[in-house]
Specification:
single chain; mainly alpha; Alpha-lytic protease prodomain-like; Alpha-Beta Plaits; 2 domains; three-stranded mixed β-sheet; 3 strands; about 70% helix
Length: about 300
Amino acid sequence: MSQLTPDTRMNISAGATSAVVAAVLVALKLWALGQTGALSVAASLADSAMDLMVALGALAALIYAARPADEDHAFGHSSAEDLAALGQALFVLISAGVIATAAVLRLTDPAPAPLQAEGAGLLVMSLSVLLTLALVMWQGYVARKTRSRVVAADRLHYLGDLLPNIGAIAALIASKYWDMGAIDGVVALAAAALLIIGALRIGKGAFDALMDRRADPALIAGIGEIAGSWPQVFGYHDLKTRMAGSRVFVNLHIELDGAQPLIQAHDIGAALRRAILQRYPQCDVIIHKDVFHSAAKDDV
């Protein structure tokens, strides 16, 4: 672990925290289900159980993606993050469909099953919401800092869990005081819609990365701005990027004075690379050095 970058450490810590929270939620909701017999709690328990399996898979993907480059994977293993994120997005879509179907069935049931021991259920579900909120806040911070699609996709699971959990709390309260136990169906439908939107967004990002789509145009423009204004660089061309997990691979050709010593050309390229990495630490940069006047002739 000592060779891992700070971003990788944060991603793995977020994945481990997700798995621990999911395990705690499964245990709490299993007890609550036995106490209340509430279908909304049962649905939330099933969702948390699936989240635990997904969280363990995501953690394994993050650990595998952190492995250094080797003979068979010269560019590292970060694409494992995109594969995991794509799988998570598909899982979220399926979960959204199940939640929506259950909500419709509950809303159309003329005699939904009565709830019991609502107080115990309220305690557990409230604790579940607090744990989920804390986890979502941590995952959001990590995802913004490291740009990990796996962490972002896992965070989406728990964001989606919040509304069903709140819906279960609302159902328990409504059942206890107003005999309106089916109210969680409306909240569940809203949660399903949000899950579908988020899953499509994360799935598209993972698919684009697996298809070697270029990086964010703002990042590309920023790299071009640095290269174009760098001292003793007369121009640049063939700026190409591709994404893999939370990494961005950059290839850049710069045009230098062909009469200068090789060591000077090397130092210019190395300094430019350091400047790009300082602004965009998620990048892996390769700089090719071309002779300026030769490039000019080729353009004519």
